[in-house]
């Protein structure tokens, strides 16, 4: 019950935020998910957030699970940072589309372009159709 109240409070406090991301998480504090869209926070779970090295470069991996019974149409992006917090280039800059069927689990990943990256931020949002 306490966790539900905390999530509801966080959702209410960031409801007026100017960010376009529904959920945001940093690899350095993976247990702290910033919820900017309460509905998306209920429909989507970030099951795990992991980082590792591949050929000397940082790789970010996020496991997602749809809690919805219908399809979710989403966009996500990874941003990589060096030890001083300076934004680094990634192999997949910008927003990428992702469709999750109801109840589906999927892993998404990205790779930094250089070996300086030590941390990453993962953002995911709903695609809003006109």
From TrEMBL:
InterPro entries assigned: DUF1425, YcfL-like_sf
Keyword line: Signal
Signal peptide: 1-22
Keyword Ion transport: no
One Pfam assignment: DUF1425
UniProt key word Acyltransferase: no
Top-level division of the source organism's lineage: Bacteria
Protein name stated in the entry: DUF1425 domain-containing protein
Source organism phylogeny: Bacteria, Pseudomonadati, Pseudomonadota, Gammaproteobacteria, Alteromonadales
């Amino acid at each position: 019950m306490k966790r539900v109240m905390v999530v509801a409070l966080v959702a209410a406090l960031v409801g007026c935020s100017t960010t376009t991301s529904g959920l945001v998480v940093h690899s350095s504090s993976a247990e702290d998910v910033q919820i900017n869209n309460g509905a998306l926070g209920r429909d989507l779970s970030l099951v795990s957030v992991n980082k590792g090295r591949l050929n000397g470069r940082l790789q970010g991996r996020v496991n997602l699970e749809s809690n919805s019974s219908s399809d979710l149409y989403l966009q996500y992006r990874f941003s990589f940072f060096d030890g001083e917090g300076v934004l680094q280039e990634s192999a997949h800059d910008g927003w990428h589309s992702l469709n999750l069927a109801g109840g589906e689990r999927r892993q998404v990943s990205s790779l930094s372009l250089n070996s300086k990256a030590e941390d990453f931020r993962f953002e995911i949002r709903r695609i809003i159709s006109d």
